[in-house]
Amino acid sequence: xxxxxxxxxxxxxxxxxxxxxxxxxxxxxxxxxxxxxxxxxxxxxxxxxxxxxxxxxxxxxxxxxxxxxxxxxxxxxxxxxxxxxxxxxxxxxxxxxxxxxxxxxxxxxxxxxxxxxxxxxxxxxxxxxxxxxxxxxxxxxxxxxxxxxxxxxxx
Length: 155
Description:
Elements: H1 3-40, H2 43-76, H3 83-113, H4 117-145
Helix pairs in contact: 1-4, 2-3, 2-4, 3-4
């Protein structure tokens, strides 16, 4: 077993289940917090918080689709395409990938510090969903790349 296979097995049998359990605990905490917050405070808070949370989730989803669009654009361009388009797609994809965690982390901190914990939890949930989706895409690419081109000879 080489290093790549070992890390794949480690991810499959240890890290991914731990991450999913942690995400489940986080979602359960977020839901209990929302339920207790809505029971304690006025019902008008729900009319303010829920639309903003939904709008935020829609915004994050749109940004993720935009990032995926640029990533797919980069992968679908033929090699004969001008190098400037390929470099632009790569630069945009890398920029969005690099800036997203910092922006989301800063906004999570801001919302948590100002007392709007619902928005902070929505940011954290969007990051968890994004990481799981990236792992699935990476695993599918690895499965496609690991297909043998020939069968080994039997001796």
